[in-house]
Amino acid sequence: MTKGTLKAFLERKNIEISAKRYGIDALSAMAQGLFCSLLIGTIINTIGTQFNIGFLTNPVCTISGADYTVGGLAVAMTGPAMAIAIGYALKSPNLVLFSLATVGFAANGLGGAGGPLAVLIVSIIAAEFGKAVAGETRVDILIVPLVTIGVGVALSAWWAPGLGAAAMKVGNLIMWATELRPFMMGILVSVIVGMALTLPISSAAICAALGLVGLAGGAAVAGCCAQMIGFAVMSFPENKWGGLISQGIGTSMLQMGNIVKNPRIWIAPTLTSAITGPIATCIFKLQMNGAPVSSGMGTCGFVGQIGVYSGWVNDVATGAKAAITGMDWLGLILICFVLPAVLAPLINMGCRRLGWVKDGDLTI
User: With CB atoms counted within 10 Å of each terminal CB, which end of the chain scores lower, N or C?
Assistant: First the structure.
């Protein structure tokens, strides 16, 4: 097959080998799959436990000897949900999309704690192979699932354990470094994850893939909240209540177009994250011991705060924490809401006086 023929084939099959397709579209979709399975399952379990709702705390079914609650069923579907979401982002045909459920289950299970990274890589490859054979025979109903599942499960067995272990080593290194140097790592993690949240990539998926929890997870929460609440409050004169809500509990990614036009509008929330990150790690010892994906969600649907709270609940239940204290709540409120709402507008005011930011620069 010549280069021109291969290019034409890939275009016909809608196989686009690019950083945007794999690093932005697929990664962002994977985060949505995580939200609709692992994260929502964790939230359901927490609600059931805290409010003593029998329907949510009691098993609703038993599968292969294991009891599952409603939230437990959602958590069990984490791998398939991520893989199908990735396939959807890659514009996979239906037979490929449905076959990815098996691929995601295999990759996530074999990847262990670092399963999300394994699911991302394996699902992309399996989906593209499935797309390549789709429509090429009269027996697609057999060939497409065989190829998609065959490639996906084979790669899961071959790569997933190593990918999962590598992801966890990186995550553990970050968490270890944060414990060792909470000030510097508090700044780095907060700034990097916060910027990733505003960029058209998924900070949630990154945190999930690395299993980022503990103090590093707390710094990540601080950085994400600095971006979301920071942009929401400092752009209030332009965007009013609609902008406050859409950015504050939606996403700061809405400012991406304005950042491209004037990158200096990003100074205030980014400096804010550099301040709140070490405050979280050094003063309040804010830890995210809930689902790792929550570390990269910030105030989006208050998922970051729910994740921190569910971590507190788990720690109390296991004896790792004596009780949820007033200092815990004070730190969470200050780091996630009060400090970003105060610091970002103040820093932005300085940028405006320097002529770096003008009226209308933050309008969405």
Answer: N
